[in-house]
Design brief:
Protein name: Olfactory receptor
Keywords: Cell membrane, G-protein coupled receptor, Membrane, Olfaction, Receptor, Sensory transduction, Transducer, Transmembrane, Transmembrane helix
Strand content: 5-15%
Shape: globular
Distance between the termini: 82 Å
Structural class: mainly alpha
Pfam families: 7tm_4
Membrane topology: Multi-pass membrane protein
Helix content: 55-70%
Number of helices: 11
Organism: Echinops telfairi (Lesser hedgehog tenrec)
Radius of gyration: 27 Å
């Protein structure tokens, strides 16, 4: 015998062991009614399809964060507040310095300015919500807010990935084709490259967000992260997320493989061209122009691969959350230091920018 209940309208089918329908009862208008059938020689299976909780506006998820120890919460709040302020102010200085100095209106600094803006947006998507939750002692986030976090984290992460590829291509053209650099990297091409990268970033983010809408969620909605990370959200879903997981692997392999291959190709050609230079001074100058970008690429992909392997090898949610901090917070905070400490033009522009402030 099979008993099936469907959402708000109760629908029951009683089927014998041979599969023939013995009776059908429907149109019970309330969920408070119960039916108990005790019949020998019949197998009984109870199927209950609840309304997907994500359809109601009251669904909330709990972001457990890095630790649930109340004594460590003030330390974590102070630490992440400092990291967030350093990230925003450092990247904001880069945006203002590049925008205000006409000597930095080149393709390399155009992409650097957009990279800094993307870093600010990515950090703002996750960290402020975590700080607010710690401050008000409330770990919840609404279902809509969680979807927004998933979408914007994916958009800015993929966009930063393609910006690094565009910057690697820019260095490749500058070193391997210096005479044609201004012709190839013209403002129109740079703008189209930026627009194309952003559109490619929005597409998988929108697809993943829409795929989450098809899932149903039950009562245990605890996410062991400080933000709504897509794989962690899929784990708390009641319905099958097999298609979502396949889509994640496909997009990661496709977009990540293409972008990483582009960076490897660019730097392979750069190294090959630099090694053919006759003078050591020329080699040093060529490598120095790529040093900052190579450091940022190593930090971005190194922490990304570290998060992937740590989540695959460890079963501890806390270790996975700590690894995500290395990927979601550390690169965005370190990028301004890498470009300002290793770049003479940026240092000069910073001095000019600070000199314009009356208090300094």
């Amino acid at each position: 015998m099979i008993i099936s209940l469907h959402e708000s309208s109760l629908f029951l089918k009683i089927i014998s062991a041979s599969g023939d329908t013995a009776a059908v009862w429907s149109k019970a208008k309330t969920k408070q009614k119960h039916l108990i059938v005790l019949l020998p020689n019949l197998s009984i299976r109870f199927i209950y399809n609840t309304e997907s909780n994500n359809q109601s506006g009251g669904l909330k998820l709990l972001l457990l964060g890095l630790t649930e120890d109340p004594e460590l919460q003030p330390f974590i709040f102070s630490l992440f507040l400092i990291m967030y302020l350093v990230t925003v102010l450092g990247n904001l200085f880069i945006v203002l310095a590049v925008s205000s100095d006409s000597k930095l209106h080149t393709p390399m600094y155009f992409f650097l300015c957009n990279l800094s803006f993307t870093d600010m947006c990515l950090s703002t998507t996750t960290i402020p919500k975590m700080l607010v939750n710690i401050q008000i002692h409330n770990q919840s986030i609404t279902y809509t807010g969680c979807l927004h976090q998933i979408f914007f984290v994916l958009v800015f992460s993929v966009f930063e990935n393609f910006l690094l590829v565009a910057m690697a291509y820019d260095r490749y053209v500058a070193i391997c084709h210096p005479l044609r650099y201004t012709v190839i990297m013209n403002p129109c091409f740079c703008g189209l490259l930026l627009l194309f990268s952003f559109c490619i970033s929005v597409m998988p983010a929108l697809l993943h967000s829409l795929m989450v809408l098809r899932l149903s969620f039950c009562t245990e909605l605890k996410i062991p992260q400080f933000f709504c990370e897509l794989p962690q959200v899929l784990r708390v879903a009641c319905s099958s997320a097999h298609i979502n997981n396949i889509l994640i692997y496909f997009t990661n392999c496709t977009l990540g493989g293409v972008s990483f291959s582009g960076v490897i190709f660019s730097y392979t050609r750069i190294v090959s061209a630099v090694l053919r230079m006759p003078s050591s001074g020329g080699k040093y100058k060529a490598f120095s122009t790529c040093g900052s970008h190579l450091s940022v690429v190593s930090l971005f992909y190194g922490t990304g691969f570290g998060v992937y392997f740590s989540s695959a090898l460890t079963l501890s949610p806390k270790k996975t959350a700590l690894a995500s901090v290395m990927y979601m917070v550390l690169p965005q905070m370190m990028n301004p230091f890498i470009y300002s400490l290793r770049n003479r033009d940026m240092k000069v522009s910073f001095r000019k920018l600070i000199g314009r402030i009356p208090s300094f």
